[in-house]
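Before the break, one more example. Copy the sequence into your notebook; we will annotate it together after we see the structure.
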Amino acid sequence: MRVALIINLLRHQNRLRYGLSEARYDEQVSIGEDDRDELIKELLAEAHGLRMKNEQISLYTESKIAELVKLQRELLTIRDGFETVVEQRNDLEGKLALVNTELEHLGTIYTAMTDQRDRLRGRVAEVETSRAFRIGKRFIRFVPFLKEHENPSQ
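Here is what the structure looks like once it is written out:
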């Protein structure tokens, strides 16, 4: 009904009838001044409503775009931080490789020194069990002044 009234109003304002025949005045359409004013008010209200809805959609769109820009900045910050973390991890992995290599080297040195210590302990045990060492110890006990001169560097 409303659409028909709007179409009739447009026909009335243009005083034409649209169709295949030539343009002529449609005498069957009669719209009163009150109806016409009411239609104009409704059209203006509808146009205002559409403008307001357009404004709301624009505000909503702008707010969503602002959120997206903010999120994009945050993502860039996070990505930069992630790249920094990856660089630090790579540096630490390189340092860890060096420390592991040095640890293996120190382990080898420790094993060699332990073997040397064990050989020297065995040699000292052999010397201490020898007859000459035991005789020398007894002799020093009988002649104590030799003990003082035993080590001339002191």
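Helices lie at 2-14, 33-129, 131-142, 145-148. Residues 33-129 form the longest helix (97 residues). Try to locate both features in your own notes.
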